[in-house]
Design a protein that fits this description.
Blueprint lengths: L10 H24 L7 H17 L9 H4 L2 H4 L2 H5 L33 H8 L2 H4 L7 H59 L1
Helix pairs in contact: 1-2, 1-8, 6-8
């Protein structure tokens, strides 16, 4: 049986895997802080940290196969078609002026930014009075909003893993620099000792 990819995982399963990954990354950071700075244990620590990083990657099958954009539903990237059906539009700051001259569109046109308060959106889905104001009782809005909220939650979970790896990288770099300095001092002392003996 094929393993479930991150795209197919429920948000609950993804949350539990992220919590496990954060625990593993904390252990890797502790190793980097404690053992990576000691030249005697440096090689063993590097191998152990690499194995822990592989364990984290194994928790998220399919994450490396596709970029994060491929894992986020299209409704979350561009909610325009979804909200347009409810008569909602992004705020237009152009005061009715046409930004495009002629029939040619400008290349690299800025995308409209949507400022979504996800907690308010979540709360609105639980408000029966508000939801009853939609023609269909809010069924279509609820479906699209839930997709958007799930995509936001998934993105936040992926960001936690990225942050964990970034912290590990920073600690590892500090440890490697400290070991490099220790080795440079040891080599300098060894050279001085050899010159004195000559």
């Amino acid at each position: 049986m094929a393993e479930v990819t991150v795209r197919e995982m429920s948000i609950t399963e993804l949350r539990s895997r992220v919590a496990e990954a954060e625990r593993i990354l904390r252990l890797a950071r502790q190793l980097a802080q404690n053992e990576l700075r000691d030249p005697a244990s440096c090689e063993r620590a590097k191998d152990r940290i690499a194995a822990l990083c592989q364990d984290v990657n194994a928790l998220f099958p399919g994450l490396g196969d596709a970029g994060l954009d491929a894992l986020i539903p299209s409704e979350a990237k561009d909610p325009t078609p979804a909200v347009a059906s409810f008569g909602l539009r992004p705020q237009d700051d152009s005061n009715g002026e046409d930004e495009l001259e002629g029939e040619e569109e400008q290349e690299g046109e800025d995308e409209e930014e949507w400022d979504v308060d996800y907690e308010k959106l979540r709360a609105s889905l639980g408000n029966p009075v508000l939801m009853s104001q939609f023609p269909d009782g809010g069924a279509q809005f609820r479906q699209l909003a839930e997709k958007l909220l799930e995509a936001h939650d998934r993105h936040a979970l992926y960001a936690r893993i990225s942050d964990g790896f970034a912290e590990l990288e920073a600690v590892t770099r500090q440890g490697a620099e400290q070991v490099r300095q220790q080795l440079a001092v040891a080599l300098t002392l060894e050279e001085l000792k050899n010159k004195r003996l000559d």
